[in-house]
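Supplementary Methods. Inverse-folding protocol.

Structures were first reduced to a discrete structure-token string of length 219. This string, shown here, constituted the complete conditioning input.
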């Protein structure tokens, strides 16, 4: 991380954009993350991505085991500028990756003895898995899960759209997380890395600007 380069690149942004970056980064977290498993409707992936951005979740894991790489067009529509997307061809690889980074695996499902949302303990790093629209999370996730979570529902309908479920769960757990004493915020290094990433995405002719910067830095 070259902080001088970051300062130079940020000089190409408006004061308002720089202030917005700082404000958003102060609310970003990797304490929670989200994984979607073979979501068929592309707009649902996009909506989950937007919910991650809205509620300060920096990382989204997209598993494309059965449907292949179908989310390309959707990922090109906006929120991917601010949310980091990690793609997995196998659910087992995603689970292993998340566990290696200290996350517990939480399967969202209304069909078993899942814990109610308001009872969920927000202190542990958690990865919330959401399954395909019709089948829900796979047996692989259900068998590997460290816990199960459901949204209380009081009507005839037994399930919600995946994007609605993700938004409800993230709003609840993030609100309670921010009210806790847990150290949930990004480190200064993580903030600067994202600030650099976001800044580069906002500047036209970024390659040329960086080339000139390094040319001028040569002794």
């Amino acid at each position: 991380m070259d902080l001088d380069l970051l300062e130079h690149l940020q000089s190409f942004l408006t004061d308002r954009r720089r202030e917005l970056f700082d404000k958003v980064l102060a609310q970003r977290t990797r304490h929670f993350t989200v994984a979607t498993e073979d979501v068929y409707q592309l707009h649902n992936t996009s909506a989950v991505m937007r919910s991650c951005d809205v509620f300060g979740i920096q990382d989204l894991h997209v598993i494309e085991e059965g449907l292949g790489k179908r989310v390309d067009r959707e990922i090109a529509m906006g929120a991917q500028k601010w949310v980091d997307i990690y793609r997995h061809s196998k659910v087992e690889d995603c689970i292993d990756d998340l566990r290696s980074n200290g996350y517990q695996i939480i399967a969202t499902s209304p069909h078993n003895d899942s814990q109610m949302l308001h009872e969920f303990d927000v202190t542990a790093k958690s990865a919330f898995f959401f399954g395909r629209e019709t089948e829900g999370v796979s047996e692989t996730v259900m068998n590997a899960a460290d816990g199960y979570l459901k949204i209380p529902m009081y009507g005839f309908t037994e399930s919600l759209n995946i994007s609605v479920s993700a938004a409800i769960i993230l709003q609840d757990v993030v609100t309670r997380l921010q009210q806790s004493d847990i150290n949930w915020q990004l480190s200064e290094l993580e903030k600067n890395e994202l600030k650099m990433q976001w800044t580069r995405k906002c500047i036209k002719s970024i390659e040329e600007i960086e080339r000139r910067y390094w040319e001028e830095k040569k002794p």
